[in-house]
Design brief:
By secondary structure, this protein is an all-alpha fold. Helices cover 66% and strands 0% of the residues. The chain is built from 8 helices and no strands. Helix 1 runs parallel beside helix 3 and helix 6 crosses helix 8.
Length: 181
């Protein structure tokens, strides 16, 4: 089955990698409701979004593209796995992520399709799990309605939390979470 998508301006080997992985993802029904073309578009969008990070001194563009595509495929596989687990009732989710997404305290997610919201949830969980304790506390502080009370409840001065919030923002950008904005 040949895809109807065209990717003018994208390196031909990158398109070949994308089409191969998209067929694999669709065949295994990784994310429910997505077709081959949907996977292709997701992989191309991710590649184009991150292509400014390409450094010709470190590798060739096809190698760079292959690495990015494989990382996105791994994220989609994990996303699909967690979606199946969650629908089976086996995964509760991280409390901070639940609070952030339910109240839309970090940013509005209602414009995102369901599979993107699920991937966002998984990416946030993975991101928060790797944070040091002080930055996890900062996440809870950011979700509080009254930050002054939350800061005193944590036993920290607000300036310390603002510094931690700036570091948290930088780390989130480096982790690629800004792609959901």
């Amino acid at each position: 089955m040949q895809s109807a998508n065209r990717y003018d301006g994208v390196h031909p080997r990158a398109v070949k990698f994308i089409r191969f992985h998209a067929r694999q993802l669709a065949r295994h029904r990784t994310v429910p409701g997505l077709e081959v073309e949907d996977y292709e578009q997701d992989l191309v969008a991710d590649l184009l979004e991150r292509s400014d990070r390409f450094d010709p001194l470190r590798s060739s563009y096809p190698t760079f593209a292959d690495r990015l595509i494989r990382n996105r495929v791994a994220s989609l596989l994990e996303c699909g796995s967690r979606m199946r687990c969650a629908s089976a009732g086996g995964h509760d989710g991280h409390a901070v992520v639940d609070a952030a997404l339910e109240t839309e305290g970090l940013w509005p997610t209602s414009h995102l399709p369901a599979h993107e919201r699920t991937c966002l949830r998984l990416d946030l969980e993975r991101f928060i799990e790797q944070l040091p304790i002080r930055l996890r506390r900062c996440c809870r502080w950011l979700m509080a309605l009254n930050r002054r009370t939350a800061a005193s409840g944590l036993g920290l001065h607000r300036s310390s939390l603002y510094e931690a919030a700036a570091e948290l923002k930088q780390r989130a950008g480096e982790a690629g979470l800004d792609r959901y904005l």
